[in-house]
Specification:
Strands 1, 2, 3, 4, 5, 6, 7, 8, 9, 10, 11 and 12 form a twelve-stranded antiparallel sheet that branches. 10% of the residues lie in helices and 68% in strands. The protein is mostly beta strands and 188 residues long.
C-alpha cells in the first residue's frame, strides 16, 4: 500500500511539474468549449443561451508565478427570450489576461477583452432578422477567472462582464458570459 501511495504521489508531482512553465518561455493553447451567455441592462424576459467558443491564446511566462496571455476566441453569445425567440450574437473576442499562479498548475486570471461583433440576428420560429445595424461593432468586457493545468491540458473557467453597451441608440444592453474551455498548452 505504501508503494502504491508513493507511486501516486510521484505521478501527481510529475504532472504538476510538467504543467508549470518556466520563466522566459512562450506557449500557445488552442481551446474549445462553451458559453452560457445572457444580456444585462435594459432588456426584459431574457434568459441564458448555450453557445460554443473556440480559439487560441498565446502566453509569455515572466516568472514562475506570473504570465501574460493574449488570444483570439470566436464566441457564440446572445440570449433566449420567452417563447422560442433568440438573439444570436457572434463575436471575435481578444482577451488580454494577467495570469497569477497561486499554486502549481492553478492560475487566477483577470484582464481586458475587446470584442468585435461579427454577426447578430434575432430568431423566432422560422423567422430570422439581421439586427447588425442596431448593434455596436466593438464592445469591451472584463474577463475574470481561473484555470488548472495538468500534463499540458488546461481547463479554463471565466466570467466576462460587459462594460460597454452592445446596442446603438437608447438604453444600455451589455454582455454577461460564463465560459468554460479545455485546451492543450504547446510550448515553443
Amino acid at each position: 500500500m505504501k508503494k502504491l501511495m508513493m507511486i501516486a504521489v510521484m505521478m501527481v508531482a510529475t504532472l504538476t511539474a510538467n504543467a508549470q512553465q518556466e520563466a522566459g518561455t512562450w506557449s500557445i493553447t488552442p481551446k474549445v468549449g462553451f458559453n452560457l451567455a445572457n444580456l444585462a441592462g435594459d432588456v426584459d424576459g431574457n434568459s441564458m443561451k448555450f453557445g460554443l467558443a473556440a480559439g487560441a491564446e498565446a502566453m509569455y511566462q515572466f516568472t514562475p508565478a506570473i504570465g501574460l496571455s493574449a488570444g483570439l476566441i470566436y464566441s457564440m453569445q446572445g440570449c433566449e427570450f420567452e417563447g422560442d425567440a433568440k438573439m444570436n450574437v457572434g463575436e471575435l473576442n481578444i482577451p488580454v489576461l494577467a495570469n497569477f499562479y497561486v499554486a502549481p498548475g492553478f492560475a487566477l486570471k483577470a484582464g481586458l477583452q475587446p470584442g468585435l461583433i461579427v454577426s447578430s440576428k434575432e430568431k423566432s420560429g422560422d423567422y430570422t432578422v439581421d439586427i447588425k445595424d442596431y448593434m455596436q461593432s466593438l464592445e469591451i468586457s472584463v474577463p475574470i477567472g481561473a484555470s488548472y493545468e495538468f500534463s499540458d491540458f488546461v481547463i479554463d473557467a471565466r466570467y466576462n462582464l460587459g462594460l460597454s453597451k452592445i446596442n446603438k441608440g437608447d438604453g444600455s444592453i451589455r454582455n454577461s458570459v460564463f465560459q468554460i474551455t479545455v485546451g492543450y498548452k504547446i510550448p515553443f
